[in-house]
User: Fold this.
Amino acid sequence: MRANRRSFIKYASLAAAGNLAGLRPFGTLNALASTTPDYKALVCIFLFGGNDANNMIVPFDTSGYNSYASLRGPLALAQNTLLPLTPLPNFALHPSLTDIQTLFNSGNAALVANVGTLVAPMTRAQYLAGQTVPSNLFSHPDQQLEWQNAAASGATPTGWAGRMADLLTPSYNPSATIPMITSVDGDTLFCNGASSTPVSVSPGNLGGATCSEGSECTARQTAAQALLTFNSGVSLVTADDHITSNAYSYAQILTAATQSVPPLATVFPAGGLGAQLQQIAQIIQVRAALGVQRQIFFAGIGNFDTHAGQLVAQSALLASISPAIAAFYQATQEMGIQDSVTSFTMSDFSRTFQPNSNTGSDHAWGSHHIVVGGAVKGGQMYGKFPTLALAGPDDSGSNGRWVPSTASSQYAATLAQWFGVPVAQLSTVLPNIGNFTVNNLGFV
Amino acid sequence: MNRFGRYLVLLGGLLAVAGCSGGGSVVSTPQISVSIVGPGSTRLLATGQFTATVANSANQAVTWQVNSVTGGNAASGTISASGLYTAPAALPSSGSVTVSAIAQASPSTIGQVTEAIWNPTPTVTNVTATQVGVSLNYQLVVTGTGFVPTSAIQVGGTSITTTFVSATELQGTTTVTGGATSVAVAVANPNPGASASSAFSARITYATVTATTAARLLDQATFGPTVADIQHVQQVGVTTFLAEQYAAPATTLAAIPTSPLPAVCLANNNPAPCAESEWWTAAITGSDQLRQRVAFALAQMFVVSTLSVPGQSIPQYHNALVNDAFSNFSTILKDVTISPAMGDYLNMLNSAKPPTGQIANENFARENMQLFTIGLYLMNQDGSLQTDGSGNPILAYTQAQVQAFARAYTGWTFSLPGGLPPTKFAGTNNYNDPMAPFDAQHDTTAKTLLNGTTLPAGQTTVQDLNGALANLFNHPNTGPFVCKQLIQHLVTSTPSPAYVARIAAVFANNGSGVRGDMQAVITAILTDTEARAGDTNASFDGGHLREPVLFITAMIRGLNFTNTDANGSYYGLSGQSAKLNEQPYRANSVFNFFPPEYVIPATTLNAPEFGIENTATAVLRLTMADAIVNNKISGFRVDLSNTSTLGVMAATPGTLVDYLGTLLMHSQMPASMRTGIVNAITPLTSNAQRARVATYLIITSSQYKIIH
Assistant:
């Protein structure tokens, strides 16, 4: 097991060397990919804390920008720092998103405007009239959970990825050795199904536990695993027995699968989302050994809750995710499966368009999102960009908390259908999708 | 005073003449005179024999008086016909009485003597010592004789405040060191006639408990049992242990200078490692274990994180939590709110009165309700949710109320060093003192808060803050919301609604009409039948996952690790716990390392700590366990060699496993587990390896990981 950790480190350095040589054909890997032609993977990148989408996609035409700048006040980004979008001249990206700009302009990234949690379609008037909304709008945990479970309340036991795994595992991953879902960012509701639970992986720690007892390591592990089989009558002991037993098992499987595979050449940004996406790429790389045709991954990065000092903070955050997402896309190209892997962002909510007195913004609702992948019909913005007016037609109140014009369920349904969920079974995965006329936004 | 009494002889005729005129007289025959001999002093209620001699008369008979009353009376004492004086029950104000003898042969001839009245000599025949509530104070009931209102109970030679009940009973209260089995009690009476009883050894008895109860309590109330602590708690019992902990002074963290940084964090060029090192040190070595443990729970409810606030802010914040841990919840709420750490973390610091086109920062306003006091929904006192007519939960607050609180919290900024008032808004950083109000930046418009409370327009920064916090403190949700989380952190993830309700009732009223009494709440949590059920039933369904920090502290304390870092740094422990997603004062967000409502996937078990227990962290914990038993913890060393305590025991595997079972598993290791471990280590030829492997097998078992 330690040998594997060493090899992982060695591979990482090889990968760096490889990148210096630039992109090159990867015949061996493409051959590996061809053994699982129907492979598809969804990668969720969760921006915890509520990303201020108002500064992620900014109107770029003169009147649109001027209107934006006057209301955003101290939070307004200078127009000459924004990144133009060739196919979408009236909008521009936050200056930190250079890699996303490149992906968008090359048609491998799409933007989806004003997406949020909804039970049913809603207007400002309907909101103000008290029509049913998802519970606890503006609350971090509730909105995170509702994005992840596609339900009207966070208090449900399963997420929409977990339900997809419940539905699709028998047909796509009948002989897989690990679950359909892998989280590289700990436990989230998104990943939990009724019958399936995810495997959690700590980025860079794919191997099993360290043992310092030399020749007695096997005996120690056998004894330790045996202790997990005694029935104690204490529920939490039983629950932890289950998790720990799975941990031993998955570690062994992942170690065996990755041991003899050469590393990817793509260099990822160190730490944070880069390390998470690198870990995901490594697991995708050994998909054939794991016996999976469908995989869902969960990655996440925090600190988007920019109530104060937002300009500096968000700039740094977006600058950290943009190259990580680009590196991951590059890794899928390296593996020749860029058309089989679709990455997408989710976040608690967007933030008030109106600034607060700490050069920050507060919890809001509808937000813009990014979808990346070879299968993505990129270079376009989907959905309806909100009217940026306080107490305007898209404001839920008077501070610029946009009523979503597209439901997170519709966003999810689009991804789910690409992934293989039949239309007839969409409502199993997304219970409220029937309330919306459109169940496929067409971005992938 | 003359022991034999002063006596005075009065000549009757002289007395009479002297009383009539100043003229001379002629002595023709010897005058009759009366002389008295008495004891000179008599103690209260004691007797003293007086004798009178009538000179120049054959008739020696006299009539005895006390203070001119024949035969005396109760106030001044009585005297018999034979001159036997009985002192009164209470001291006369003059301190003495006059005893007179009137010659019957010459009724005008009187002998008089002043008799001093002394306090009695006290004796102590019995002392009972009864513990007062959950404290180290004992009420002493002293019975004996010779007690007067000025009597003083003396404990160990020192007088204590004494209540006089009767001549045979005194009461007082004294503090007894936990574990003492007796106190020496005497009674001293003051002058006149000061005297003291001999000492009486009053027994101090304890409700001793089993090793299981002791170890379980220590796992709930400290950072991990040690052999010595288990023995101590066994001896003094639950109540005295808690009382000792309530009495223990707070171990506080030292302020961290900005420049130069202390050696511990200089290499990192970041003050956070210093804060963490100090925190680990206090948690592991502080004698105020319960205080630190409660503060740890509070720090996970009122979360601040050095991911976005400077490490310098942590000592002031932690010190507020440890100082307030046993105070009132309203005090905690206030001190947290005005701490620069929380101010910085949730942006109440420098939250200014919003100019036109801007709004007040809602961050603290929202999370203070959602996370720190009342939660999202109206609750019943047992923590369950109230529902409306349609069965839906009822929101506890609206967005408009969030914004009202946000405006109420404007106008706070750094104080000047020493907590002095600031001269400007958003001035120099000062993380060592609470924030200060700055009225010019306070939004003075009226605010409509919860339950119909309104803060009128024109109030000061402080008035609005106090009004807002009082509104939250007095909200019916606050008791169950706070108490359930405290239970989850200390005792069990899954308290019954009845358990929550019992504690919430104590929060609402500590028995003396006080709301929010934390000491009463903590006592109730730890002594509740549901907390103690596992003492006698090892499979009682409850408990909680030993979160990574508690796992590590339990090891360092229980296995007697010693610090070997050149600077005495404990920061190496953060390197271990961080891998398992827990690092002191460094949570990912205000939602803590794990959320209180976390449900284990594919179960219905609400178990917060499992939010960071998954197939990835479970493996990492195995690696950490290997590091612990193989001396790979940076800056620490443990002796598990052949000659160590465990190594020596390992010669007999069963002895070793039983010892570890007492230390680590509350003496409740299942028989099958014991057998499994004994069988696993018996083939090992190195006693050191036996010690390592046995410890590893225990601490990686779910039986150990779940504190239950």
In short: DSSP finds 24 helices and 29 strands in chain B. The mean pLDDT of chain B is 95.
